[in-house]
Design brief:
The chain is of the alpha+beta class and 432 residues long. Helices cover 17% and strands 35% of the residues.
């Protein structure tokens, strides 16, 4: 059986030991190449360190190592016998909030580190709030540096209780708290002999067994059309297929579908996967879909089940994280990329900016600057079939682009349109 894949992100304040935890995970799960380990041992010896500094495995850029901080999102790939992992290691500094948004936006699990000596701090609450906003299904609280508080259960219990109460208030569905020492290797891959009071899983054990959400039947089916395939050959004179990666749910041959934003309907007459016909296909599979009727379907259209389609709208309300150095202002003309479609749009209003420290709203700030999270009202030039981000992270998300130079300005999470007839325009509403 092929192991499935878990996408995860790590977050934590500076000096919480995040890079060491990731390094320990890679080292103890035997996911390192010999030359990687030798390079780390060599660099550690040059610094006068007797044991390998595992943080060097993830702090790959020389500038980062010299400053002792992580300044970018580093993606690491590793695997065990049970599962493959794609890990986004994100920075801890406040000014790199946007980097955590990038790393956690596709994650199904976030590991938030806390220094056992400091407990829950402002950055911990910030990272928890982002995980909640991005609807990350699973959150792990790794209480690190337990060796520096003599492995005391009372220290761990107090931090776990405070953190859990905070994230449940944010609406995070599940929290798993694990006491660890990344430096010593306690409860990262191997169970700790120093904390016999803890009976839960190690970090790796939890990562290997946590349920991965994107099963075949998860959510309403969505296929953003990427290419229209018309070979026009003697062998396939009438072949007309619509290719793309299924963003959510399951499609079956014989199912009635609707093409948005046009609203035209048809039936799936065939699904090709890797050049072979199949009866059904699901999330993340790249397929070519054949329809019974000769419809006008092009790149940027969305194919969805006739009975479970999103409404189309030109008015989008969304929670956004502004990622560019230039501010986003009311009246700003932008390009909005949703799935495979890109349309012109204008920022109608910025109703509020979120203060992540205490989750309060600052009303009508007029603009958002880099790393700000807030609410935005947008008007698009053409109707878009937008899901609520809470229902579908893939088809409920979008980015805003600067039309002059192609810079990504803002990452957005839409509230989705109310239930109207799918190809009629509708207005959305939201609250954070």
């Amino acid at each position: 059986m092929t192991a499935d894949t878990l996408r995860l992100a790590t977050a934590g304040s500076v000096d919480d030991g995040k890079s060491t935890l990731v390094g320990r995970l890679l080292h103890d799960s035997k996911s390192l190449l010999t030359d990687q380990l030798e390079a780390v041992e060599h660099a550690s010896r040059n610094r006068g360190q007797a044991v390998p500094d595992l943080a060097l495995l993830t702090d790959g850029l020389r500038a980062e190592r010299e400053q002792g901080i992580t300044i970018d999102v580093a993606y690491r790939y590793f695997a065990t016998a049970r599962r493959r992992f794609i890990l986004a290691d994100t920075p801890g500094h406040v000014q790199y909030t946007r980097n955590m948004v990038t790393g956690a936006s596709t994650a199904e699990l976030t590991v938030i580190l806390v220094d056992a000596r400091n407990g829950v701090v402002e950055q911990t609450r910030r990272h928890a709030a982002i995980a909640a906003l991005l609807r990350v299904p699973h959150v792990v609280l790794a209480v690190n540096k337990m060796d520096l508080v003599e492995y005391r259960e009372s220290v761990f219990a107090a931090i776990a209780e405070e953190f859990t109460a905070y994230v449940l208030e944010l609406g995070v569905p599940e929290v798993t708290a694990i006491p660890v020492s990344a430096l010593a290797g306690d409860n990262v891959v191997e169970p700790s002999a120093n904390m016999d009071w803890y009976g839960g899983p190690t970090v790796l054990e939890h990562l290997e067994t946590v349920e991965v959400g994107h099963g075949p039947a998860h959510g309403p089916a969505r296929l953003p059309v990427q290419y229209v395939i018309r070979p026009g050959t003697a062998e396939h004179p009438d072949y007309r297929g619509y290719a793309g990666q299924i963003a959510a749910g399951t499609f079956r041959v014989g199912e009635e579908i609707i093409v948005l934003p046009s609203g035209r309907t048809s039936t799936i007459s065939g699904i090709d996967l890797l050049g072979e016909p199949v009866e059904a296909a699901w999330t993340t599979q790249s397929v070519t879909m054949l329809l019974a009727d000769d419809l006008d379907v092009s790149r940027g259209d969305l194919i969805a089940p006739g009975k479970d389609a999103p409404a189309t709208t030109r008015d989008i309300e969304a929670t956004v994280c502004h990622v560019a150095d230039q501010p986003l202002t009311v009246g700003h003309r932008v390009l909005l990329k949703h799935g495979t479609r890109t349309v012109k749009a204008i920022v109608k209003d910025i109703p509020s900016r979120l203060t992540l420290d205490d989750l309060s709203l600052h009303p009508h700030p007029g603009r958002l600057v880099a790393n700000d999270i807030g609410r935005v009202s947008l008007r698009t030039a053409e109707p878009l079939p937008v899901d609520a981000y809470a229902d579908s992270r893939r088809t409920g998300s979008f980015i805003l682009i600067d039309p002059s130079d192609g810079t990504t300005l803002t990452a957005g999470m839409a509230e989705g349109a109310p239930a109207t007839h799918p190809h009629h325009s509708a207005t959305t509403s939201t609250g954070l």
